[in-house]
Amino acid sequence: MPSWLPRAALEAVLIVFAVVLGFIVNEWREARHEDQAAQLALERIVEELDTNLQALEQAAEYHATIAEAPGELEEQVRSGDLPSRGGLLETVMPSLPQGISPPILSDVAWTYAGQTGALDQLDFDLMADVARLYSVQELGTATTWQMIAETFFFNEESFEEHDITGKLSFMRLAFVELVAQERSLIANYQSVLPRVRDRIA
Hints:
The protein has one domain. The longest helix is centred in the first third of the chain and has 63 residues, at about 5-65. The protein has about 200 residues and is an all-alpha fold. It has helices at about 5-65, 70-80, 90, 110-115, 125-155, 165-200, and strands spanning about 85, 160-165.
């Protein structure tokens, strides 16, 4: 046996070992980077959910106080204390001290985390619950608020004189529905938020 053969075999084994070790280290680094990205995404989502919940609670409290205002105005119209014809905005706005005050709810952290794939390795059931929460926020409360704004406030008819009795009744129902949706969304937030917070290492 040539004298160089044991040395060549040892060098070959060391090269293979170094390559395998390099792969293992790279995989460990990638896994660690993915874990850090997921944790950062969770922290941002928790911060966003906290901020949204606070805004939602304030808005729901205000909307609950003004939800009956259109009904009270409708009663005043029916009793003759207010004219039945008039501008809807002119009639309603004195009863809405802060206007309609929609909650400003963000989904930036959630959307960004989804686009970057930072949440791919996290618990699917929990992430599905968070996704449903954001979906209800967008398709429920935000849609109802937009309907209220467009139907009663941001159109020409609201500035013109009309019989406002029917509009006042419809507005009251819309605000009552909005408050119900906001309270339901708050309950969803209060259920999901602690579970997401618990996943932060």
